[in-house]
Design goal:
257 residues; 8 helices; 2 domains; mainly alpha
Amino acid sequence: MAELLVWPALIAYGEAAVAYAGELRGPGRYGRLGIWGVRIGWLAQTALLVAQVLSVDGFPWGTWAGALNLLSWLVVSGYLVWGCKPRYRLVGLVVMPVAVGLLVLAWAGGGTGVRASEGGGWALDLHAGLMLAAFASFTVAAAMAVLYLYEERRLKHRDAGLLRLRLPSLEALDRLASRVALVGLGLLSAGIIVGVTRLDAGELDAAMTVTVVIWALYAAALALRWEAGLRGRRLAWSLVAGFALVTVVLPLTHFAS
C-alpha cells in the first residue's frame, strides 16, 4: 500500500517540470506552481521512504532500483535547500526531469516497494548513503551550471526577455554552483573513507577506482577555481562534464547488481 505514494510524487514532480518550462514563457505564476509541485512531491516521496524504513529490517535501498529511489529524493532535497529562493527556482528546469526519470526507473525496478533487500552492514549502508548524497549534490551543481550557460548565452544575444525571468547574476550562479559542488566533494570524500575501511589490504575494486577518479576531477576543478581563476563558462562546462561522467559510471559500477 505504501508503494502507491510513488504516484502523487511522480505527478507532482512532473507538474513542477512542466510549470518550470512554462516559466520561460510567462514568468511569475508558473514558478510558484512549480515550487509547490516540488514540495508536495517531496512530502509524498518522504512518506514513501519512511514507510520503507518502517516496513523492513536493515537498509531498504540496497538494490540498484532502491538506490535510485533514494537518489531521486536526495536530488529534490538538495534543490529545495539550494534552489528554493525565487531567483534560483529555474534550476528546477533541469533538476525535476532528472528526478522524475530516476523515480520512474526506481518504480520500474521495484525500488519503491517495501521488500527487504540484503543488508551489507552499517558501514556499507553509510557508504552508499554518502555516495548517493554526493551524486545528488553534483546533480544540483550541474543544473546550476546549465542555468549559467543558458543565461550567459541569452545575455550575449542581448535578449531583453531575460530580464523578465528574474534570474540570479552570473557571478552568483558561479559562486553557488561551486559551493554545492564543494559540498558534494566533501560527501564523496567521506564516502570513499568509509568504503576504504571495508576493503582488505591491497584490494581496490572497479567502483572505488572510478570513484577516486571522479573525486580527483572535481577536486581539480574546484582547486583551479580558487587558485587559478577557473570560473564562468569554463567552470560551468567542467561541472557539466563531471556530472556526465557520473551518469555514465554510476550504472556500471555502483548499480551493477
